[in-house]
Amino acid sequence: MVESPFLLIAATSSAAGLTAGFVMHRSDFCVTAMFRDLFLVGDFFLLRMLVLLVVVSMVAFEAGRWGGLLGPYPFPLLGPGSLAPLIGGLVFGVGMVLAGGCVVGTLYKLGAGSMISAVAFAGLLAGSALYAEWHPWWSAFARATTFSPAITLPQWLDVAPALLILPLAALGTVYLYRCLRRGLLTRPAYASGHIPPWQAALILAAVGFVSWLFIGMPLGITTSYAKLGATVEALFWPDHVTGLAYFQALGLNYTPPFATEPVSGGAGPQLDAIAAIQYPLIVGIILGAAVSALLVREWRLHWRIPPRHYVSALLGGLLLGAGARMVPGCNIWHLWGGLPILAVQSLLFLLGILPGAWLGGKLLTRYVVR
Amino acid sequence: MEQVNSITIDISGQLCPSCLLLTLKELNRHADAVRNGGTEIVVTTDDRQATATIPDAVNKMGYAAEVTRVDAGYRIRVCARR
After folding, report:
1. Whole-number Å distance between alpha carbons of B22 and B25
2. CATH code, B5-80
3. How much is the pTM?
């Protein structure tokens, strides 16, 4: 990993991670809460922030595509729609509520000293690595239920992206303007150094754009959870890891922006393009959140909590990790990256995560928080 | 001055959104006493999000909330509106 494409990728990814970790901690930009609180307490506030992030990204990505700034388009690793992202999204939705945070929420909370998130993180690694055991079967199921080779909705309908994306962005803008007029985009907050979530949404949309500009794709991290899980598993059962098809495949093959040679990567334990893109992002988010928490003197380990919370976090992490691999892709990949370009997989993931969050909320209030 | 009964709960480190849910549960259990001003609920937490969601939720229910910084976290006092 000494070639220049990897240096630019790793530098961009580190900066994106540090920024995202800091901002998400300060604003508590929790994607899990966006969906969970909708069902648990009828609170739409954070979901409006997701709408803001998606609408801004729709316009920015479309402008970037028109200006020839963003390539490749659609970005790599997106696949055609099937039942896999729908079912995977449901599993992911249940998991994120039980874990108390999504794949990124777990990282920024871990960075701020949350022991619950440390347990969820362990579950995430294990769940991601375990997926490799049934990958061949799941992959065949995804192929069998694929209904179109199109990656995006505009491709499926055979229309120019702008014809679908810009009217939807305009509708979103009208909705957000009405929310703004009614004071629904802000609410009083008393936490030290608080960054209003609407500002966080704009910053995170900008981070996603910069990531696509310099790396060739928006933010995503879950293939590296499988990679990290495989690395740990290989310490104990190296032959088994080598024998699993999922860890041998190199799903990423593309030429990054500002590079002349193609790069490749996969979920196996080797250090490749996936590691260069995602490991710095993971470390950056944890460090960014840690710095934020230390600066406001809130970094502290709390571990004396009811055991059922630990069990929930572990189970949630396992489901999160496995769900993300089944989709494939996590919530920030699909909701912040794929949804703004109307990727079919991302739309199906969104449809799956909604009932998943509802079910997760039912399980949480019945068995965990009581 | 009237003596106020304080119900204190420490929800530090727990799974999100324990802080909001357990506060609302306690508030519902003692709704009349809190509304009459004889009881207040005092929550200690490290959950930054709860410092926004609890005041927002209890205000909609007709109560007041006051957030103060303590040690490495926050104390949220839920009481009757004056």
Report:
1. 5
2. 3.30.110.40
3. 0.95
